Amino acid sequence: MSQVSKYEPSAAMLHALELEFSDEILTKTDATFRSYLEHRQLNYENAISVLRMLLSIEDLSTLMQYSQIMQFDVPVQLTKAGRLSIKLSQKANQIMLVPLVDEVVLLPVGTLSASEQPIQRIPKLFNNVGRVFVVTNVTKECVIIEPSRFSNVSPKSIKNTNFDVIFRSPRIPFRVMYLALNRFTSDPKTRRYLFPHVNTPKISSNSGRLSLINADIQSNPEQLEAIQQIVAGPNPEVPYILFGPPGTGKTTTIVEAILQVYLTGRGRILVSIGSNAACDVITLKLIQHIEKDKRLQSLQSGESGLLRLISATQFKKHVKSIHPAVLKYSNYEENRRKKTKSRTGLKKIDLAKYKIVVATLCLSGLRAARSLVKFTHIFIDEAASVSEPETLLAIAGIKNDNCHVILSGDHQQLGPVVKSKRAKSLGLDHSAMERLLLHKMYEVNEKGQYDRTVQSRLRRSYRAHPEIIGLYNKLFYNGNLIPMAPMAQVNQAANWSMLADGKFPILFQATHGETEIETNSTSSFNMLEAQMVCWYVLSLLKDGLGGVKVEQNHIGIVTPYLAQYQLLKRMLRVIKQESVEVGTVERFQGREKPIMIASLVSSFSGASFLSNPRRINVLLSRAKLLLILIGNPITLGKNQNFKFIIDQCKAHGNVQYKMNKIKDDSIVDLLKNLKLQDIKDEEMTSSQSSLDSI
């Protein structure tokens, strides 16, 4: 990263921050922005200026958080493990700091001024003076640090000494996005590619009959068509979009398309996704086919096949949790000799030698853009969940004239993670995929017809019971989804005693508990709902689904609030059911469970977390066999989407009003003594989540 500029904020943008990025100051800072503020439309002419402005607002909002937690004249203690410990002030939020990524700079006492406003301190975050350490662990009370990689400071030499302390992020994603925007500036062809004319010429091409690797695709016309179009590449002037709602086999389609492009003998492919976890999933699916199909033997581990490109940060943080098969196909040095092993544990590789490279968007922007590789295809999966600047990471400086870009995802699910409310209000939370789908070229007419040379829309959903699909199909997909899961696999809740209508495996549990917010917190929790969740968990595990045995790993619990998530985690630990997975809506995106229990924590009007239709869509579309919704019907009924859901449950008699409670005194005592301070829901998508993108 030392080769990438730090992209320090300009004086003009720091001044704009002081004025809370008002419309007036933003138009003074950049005249191009005036027109954008009037029409809120990104186009070929204004894209670079607008995206740079929005990215800078988001960046400065993050820098502001770090500037607010600088500490003055604080002691640094030596731990038993030989590292250093700094006690965190009340202002310092431990959730914000990212171990093995964030840095700590120790300065002589008096270097920093406590009287300065946080905005005035931001330039000091870029200070190169002082001893630099890396955060290794964060607890509620303190942060543990050790010398940075190239430092020769001995922790023992500075123990029990007071320092002024700067906490800072290396801002890797931001810096690489600024770099991508610079590349985008000097590449008008790629800019036109992402902002196409309406009458873009097409090239008639036919890939011929495909010999499928996954034979099941033959029976799915939409998947088959998408693969044929991607292999043929009939429209080189615009990105190809694969729209894949829940359970429609988007990843299956993408994997087959990647391998079919490879089999043409002409393919050199970059597969890029926002998170490391998603990169590992698609790599595993590729490996499963590569190691079974003789036609793909040349892709097996070696310098010419598949490469899962791992960053040094990901290696340090998660190497033990990476699947062994993924490591086998990665740049990990498996058999390192002590004398020759690299400092990072990763070997130097030449990307040009590999036919298929899988990497995060951030790493693609760092590595692929620096290499001389000429990719024929760039696949960006989960493209609807990343911002326009993030999408550019895998395109700007990488795409050439003969390269096809395939964007796949679902813009009806959660979009890009944006922490700054101002950047979000100005449009940074919109993806390139979402914008393109509003373009006339990607228009779908009243009959459901569209230009099949630029997009495919998957319809056949294999995930869930038809009635569960029916909820989100009606609300978010205009009834276009076709339930295809075999009833023998998804009808197992039919005989569950809690359902009046077993053919409709959706239960609404009415509660009227008090929603609470603890001290120094903005996140809500509802203890009565938490009790109800635990009652259902224990009931399902004890009695099953009308004769169908239920295990802990069959159940998922989703909630839109971080405080409720933490409350439920603690309660499940007390009742010894820790293997039941609990997560916020964000954590469950792209996941599924046979049984999902949703704790909605809404006993007041204006619940902002539930007014977002995409959150509701994710919440509804995780369950395969049974969906249990727990909340206040009066409050939720004010939301049109939830009114429809509750009305459907009422029509089938599947609304439960009886308040079943756990009688375990230990849980009751726990509820009385819980302390959920300092929890803010904005932290659900904080720098912790951005770590997985590096």
UniProtKB/TrEMBL annotation:
One of its GO terms (cellular component) is P granule. Keywords: ATP-binding, Helicase, Hydrolase, Nucleotide-binding, RNA-mediated gene silencing. It comes from the Eukaryota. GO terms for molecular function: 5'-3' RNA helicase activity; RNA binding. Coiled coil: none annotated. InterPro entries: DNA2/NAM7-like, DNA2/NAM7-like_C, DNA2/NAM7_AAA_11, MOV-10/SDE3_DEXXQ/H-box, P-loop_NTPase, SF1_C_Upf1. One of its GO terms (biological process) is regulatory ncRNA-mediated post-transcriptional gene silencing. Residues 333-421 form the DNA2/NAM7 helicase helicase domain. Residues 433-632 form the DNA2/NAM7 helicase-like C-terminal domain. PANTHER family: DNA2/NAM7 HELICASE FAMILY (PTHR10887), RNA HELICASE MOV10L1 (PTHR10887:SF419). This is Helicase mov-10-B.1. It comes from Drosophila hydei (Fruit fly). The gene is LOC111595406.
